[in-house]
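Practice problem 4.
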């Protein structure tokens, strides 16, 4: 049985472990969201999760299966829009519909709790399969990109010098 709740300080280590396992290193290769071929190092750290949880305009939603953390997503409020980031599903449980269920929970949360009219996100532009997944669920490219945070080791160690972040958006109204 799946349950959803907001993360708290007691979840920090579990969140870091899950996010890193979904994006980086050999464990991430079991799923389809891996970035291991073009970014080494960590995806997040304890300090980043602490900072997110301490902010009044942020939340981390957790999805648990029988009490075990299986998916997580970061949400930030910005005016009448929200930002979705650090979306991670246990690599062993990817392609089973958990991501879509959590995405729906996240969209409901930002609309209900924050009255958000849209959701934005950043996706590494070479992640065409991931961008297509979001597009199938109502997100659109806005035609703008942001530079990848080269030199900020807390977001990983890029193996390529051509990474950029594609901005995606979904309007709710």
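Answer key:
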């Amino acid at each position: 049985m799946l349950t959803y709740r907001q993360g708290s300080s007691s979840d920090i280590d579990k969140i870091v472990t899950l996010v890193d396992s979904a994006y980086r290193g050999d464990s991430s290769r079991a799923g389809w969201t891996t970035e291991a071929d073009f970014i080494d190092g960590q995806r997040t750290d304890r300090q980043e999760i602490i900072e997110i949880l301490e902010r009044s305009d942020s939340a981390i939603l957790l999805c648990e299966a029988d009490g075990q953390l299986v998916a997580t997503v970061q949400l930030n409020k910005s005016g009448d829009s929200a930002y979705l980031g650090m979306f991670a599903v246990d690599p062993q449980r990817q392609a089973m519909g958990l991501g879509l269920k959590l995405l729906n929970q996240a969209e409901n949360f930002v609309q209900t709790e924050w009255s958000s009219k849209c959701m934005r996100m950043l996706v590494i532009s070479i992640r065409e399969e991931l961008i297509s997944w979001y597009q199938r669920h109502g997100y659109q490219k806005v035609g703008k990109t942001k530079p990848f945070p080269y030199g900020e080791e807390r977001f990983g160690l890029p193996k390529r010098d051509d990474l950029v972040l594609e901005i995606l958006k979904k309007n709710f109204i």
